[in-house]
Amino acid sequence: MMSAQTLKRAAASLALSAALTLPMAAQAREAAPTAFDPVAHERVVQVSEQLRCLVCQNQSIAESNAELAVDLRNQVIEQVKAGKTNKEIIDYMVERYGDFVLYRPPFKSTTYILWIGPIALFLIGLGAFYVNLRRRKRVVASEAKPLTADEQALAADLLGEKKE
C-alpha cells in the first residue's frame, strides 16, 4: 500500500514530466529525446515541494495545477537547468514572493507570530478555561445550601431508601 506522501510525489513527478516534455514535443518535428536528467528532475521535485502555491495556499507548487504554480515550476526547472543550487532557487523565490512562499518560513521578526501564535493561543485558552472553572466552583460553593430534614426525607423516599 502506498502512503499519501508517495502518491503525492508520484503525482508531482508526473506533472513535472508532462511540463518538461510537452514544450519539447511541441517544438520538435521529429521525435526528440524527452528524458530529463533524473538527478535534475529529483531536484525540481524537492524544490517544488518546499514552495507554497500562492493561489491555492494549501498545496505545494508540485501538487497544484494553478497557472501561477505552473509558472513557478517552470521557473524552478529553468533555474535547475541553469545550474543553480536548491538554496539559490529558494532564495530567489523568497526574494521575489516573500517568506509566504515557503512552507517552513524562517524564525525572524516578521514571521515570529506564525511560530509563537498557536502556542500563545493555546496557553490563553488554557488559562481562560482554568479561570472559568475556578469561577464556577466558587459560584456553586456559595449557592450550595444543606438539605433540610424534610428535603432529605423526600430524597430518600424518591430514591427508594427506607429508614429502619
UniProtKB/TrEMBL annotation:
Gene Ontology CC: plasma membrane
Keyword Isomerase carried by entry: no
Gene Ontology MF: a single term: metal ion binding
One of the protein's GO biological processes: cytochrome complex assembly
Sequence intervals crossing the membrane: 112-133
Residue span(s) of domain CcmH/CycL/Ccl2/NrfF N-terminal: 18-159
Keywords: Heme, Iron, Membrane, Metal-binding, Signal, Transmembrane, Transmembrane helix
Extent of the signal sequence: 1-28
Any Pfam family the entry gives: CcmH
Gene3D superfamilies documented for this protein: Cytochrome C biogenesis protein
Ribosomal protein as UniProt keyword: no
Top-rank taxon: Bacteria
Protein family per UniProt: Belongs to the CcmH/CycL/Ccl2/NrfF family.
Functional note: Possible subunit of a heme lyase.
PANTHER family membership: CYTOCHROME C-TYPE BIOGENESIS PROTEIN CCMH, CYTOCHROME C-TYPE BIOGENESIS PROTEIN CYCH
The name this protein goes by in its record: Cytochrome c-type biogenesis protein
Source organism of this protein record: Sutterella parvirubra YIT 11816
